[in-house]
């Protein structure tokens, strides 16, 4: 009987490179042997690529080199041949104007690297916000066996006796500085306390959300989503993932068997139960588009209406990711909402989601609530529609101030982020706590790249008066660490002539979260007249990747992917809407 490394019945992509006895076969083997590998690595071993998004420019992913070594151990142990390669690394903190401008570029690089090299399977090492969806999009498109290993959250910050949530608490404390309630010395102390280790943000921001959704999709091993970055268990699960990818290659278990309409519904359910990042909607739509599945905003809203919010984690709750992980993590949340899931969905383990969850458990009911005792009866995110957002908008209702769930106010309009920063703290700005702050030209084409500008700061004069929240809306995104009554992803965006483009100071805007409405209280005839006079802004780019982006980027409700990258799922391209009828919006 052949050993695993000598299984000649396997049909491996890498054999087209290394299995031939001609001139090119010799050259392919010889060039790798120059790295010190012996002839034994070519004896039918599956070649496993380790797609590493490590970079010193990205603190969230700075530990992935160590994680890659753990993966390699697992691959070798299982009879595979690991080869590590790097791609662009998207670090939201330092990359300007936004990593979202480059998510599709990274997805293309991941896809084409896997396609071009002699890889039979791939382990995806991700961390910061956009690295996770970019790798999933690329892997789904090339459809070579793949498994994901998230990098995990950093250690929780601590200032004096106050736990610090990266992102969320920095925003709150900056408001305190601007209001004159926090001094320069304290602010300097916080700088040294808030980010204690490598790893992504310590709240249910986009990074934590997308890692959890990767587990919900079935693209990770159970429990991989939330182990802290510097925890030894993170290395252990990386090693086990290295072993598992070799098994996936032998079984022919590809992303097309895992990422389908059932798995995407599961991930959406999990998103709502977590009170996760609004960015996840854009990313899930894009991932779905790569496998030929349509995820309209109506579907997200239908699932939100029937999925309780149960994860008591900042910014929508009280606790941080370390406590969430200790309470059972994403696996415990999936177990809790199990009656609402497609438990027969296939996962990277080769087992169904239901089988994976048999041993999952919650260890702290303050952090992860029971399904029948939720924090909110509905999911964390809802979709809005109305004459101001004909193609939709979203809001995280789990982070909204209750008194603003239904609100009418006069618009205070900023034509760009630069305009906002220039006038925000002008004492003469005509704004009060009942105003609706409106930011234009911050969407996919307008910014460009749809940056996280949607968390419009509250004007300093209102902060000093004690105002803690107000309605803000834009065609931008917000960080998953954000909080407040903030409407984002307004589509169509202002830069392509959506109604947002013609909102004027003083216009009345109505927000009705329970009714899922966002209305500009201006007669339709007036809106049409304004739009007839509207002229598009000049393009930001005339060459290079920027021009490619502007020429092919889709709107937020379509996932902000490139129009030429969407494809069909060979396994299951049925629409989830067959199971979820459109609710009235």
Notes on the protein architecture:
This protein has helices at 15-18, 23-33, 64-77, 103-116, 131-142, 168-178, 184-193, 206-217, 232-251, 255-258, 261-274, 279-290, 297-305, 321-326, 329-336, 353-356, 417-423, 460-464, 524-533, 544-552, and strands spanning 47-52, 81-86, 121-126, 146-150, 157-159, 162-164, 381-386, 389-396, 406-414, 436-439, 471-474, 486-491, 508-512, 517-520. With 585 residues, it is of the alpha/beta class. Among the domains are: 158-193, no CATH class; 383-542, 3-Layer(bba) Sandwich (Glucose Oxidase, domain 1), CATH 3.50.30.80. The strands form three sheets. An eight-stranded mixed sheet has the order 7-8-12-11-10-9-13-14. The protein has a four-stranded parallel sheet with strand order 2-1-3-4, with helices on both faces. Helix 3 packs across helix 9, helix 5 runs parallel beside helix 12 and helix 8 (206-217) runs antiparallel to helix 11. The N and C termini lie far apart (62 Å).
């Amino acid at each position: 009987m052949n050993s695993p490394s000598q299984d000649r019945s396997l049909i491996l992509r890498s054999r087209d490179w290394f299995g031939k006895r001609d001139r090119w076969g010799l050259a392919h083997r010889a060039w790798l042997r120059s790295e010190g590998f012996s002839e034994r690595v070519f004896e039918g071993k599956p070649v496993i690529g380790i797609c590493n998004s490590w970079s010193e420019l990205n603190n969230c992913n700075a530990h992935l080199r160590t994680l890659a070594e753990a993966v390699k151990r697992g691959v070798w142990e299982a009879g595979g041949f690991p080869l590590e390669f790097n791609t662009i690394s998207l670090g939201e903190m330092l990359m300007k104007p936004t990593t979202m401008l480059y998510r599709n570029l990274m997805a293309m690089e991941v896809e084409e690297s896997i396609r071009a090299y002699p890889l039979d399977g791939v382990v995806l090492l991700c961390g910061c916000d956009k690295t996770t969806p970019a790798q999933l999009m690329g892997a789904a498109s090339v459809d070579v066996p793949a498994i994901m290993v998230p990098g995990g959250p950093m250690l929780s910050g601590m200032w004096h006796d106050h736990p610090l949530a990266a992102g969320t608490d920095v925003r709150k404390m900056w408001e305190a500085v601007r209001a004159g309630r926090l001094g320069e010395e304290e602010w300097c102390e916080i700088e040294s306390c808030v980010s204690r280790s490598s790893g992504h943000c310590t709240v249910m921001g986009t990074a934590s959300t997308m890692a959890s959704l990767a587990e919900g999709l079935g693209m990770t091993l159970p429990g991989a989503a939330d182990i802290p970055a510097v925890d030894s268990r993170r290395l252990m699960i990386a090693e086990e993932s290295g072993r598992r990818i070799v098994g996936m290659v032998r079984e022919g278990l590809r992303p097309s068997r895992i990422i389908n309409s059932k798995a995407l519904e599961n991930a959406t359910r999990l998103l709502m139960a977590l009170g996760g990042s609004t960015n996840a909607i854009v990313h899930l739509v894009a991932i779905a588009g790569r496998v030929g599945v349509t995820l309209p905003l109506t579907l997200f809203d239908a699932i939100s209406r029937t999925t309780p919010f149960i994860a008591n984690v900042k910014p929508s709750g009280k606790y941080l990711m370390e406590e969430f992980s200790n309470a059972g993590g994403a696996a415990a949340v999936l177990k809790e909402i199990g009656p609402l899931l497609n438990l027969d969905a296939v996962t990277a383990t080769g087992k169904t989601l239901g089988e994976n969850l048999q041993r999952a458990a919650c260890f702290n009911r303050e952090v992860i609530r029971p399904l029948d005792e939720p924090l909110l009866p509905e999911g964390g995110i809802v979709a809005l529609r109305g004459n101001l957002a004909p193609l939709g908008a979203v809001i995280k209702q789990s982070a909204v101030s209750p008194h603003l769930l239904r609100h009418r106010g006069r618009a205070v309009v900023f034509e760009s982020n630069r305009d906002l920063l220039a006038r925000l703290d002008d004492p003469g700005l005509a704004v009060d706590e009942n105003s609706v702050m409106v930011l234009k030209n911050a969407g996919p084409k307008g910014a460009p790249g749809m940056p996280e500008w949607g968390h419009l700061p509250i004007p300093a004069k209102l902060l000093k008066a004690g105002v803690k929240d107000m309605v803000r809306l834009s065609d931008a995104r917000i960080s998953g660490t954000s909080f407040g009554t903030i409407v984002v992803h307004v589509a169509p965006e202002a830069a392509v002539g959506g109604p947002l483009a013609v909102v004027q100071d003083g216009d009345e805007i109505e927000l009705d979260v329970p009714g899922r409405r966002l209305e500009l209280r201006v007669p339709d005839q007036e809106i049409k007249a304004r739009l007839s006079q509207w002229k598009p802004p000049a393009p930001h780019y005339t060459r290079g990747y920027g021009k490619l982006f502007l020429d092919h980027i889709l709107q937020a409700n379509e996932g902000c992917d490139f129009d030429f990258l969407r494809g069909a799922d060979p396994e299951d391209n049925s629409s989830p809407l067959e199971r979820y009828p459109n609710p009235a919006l």
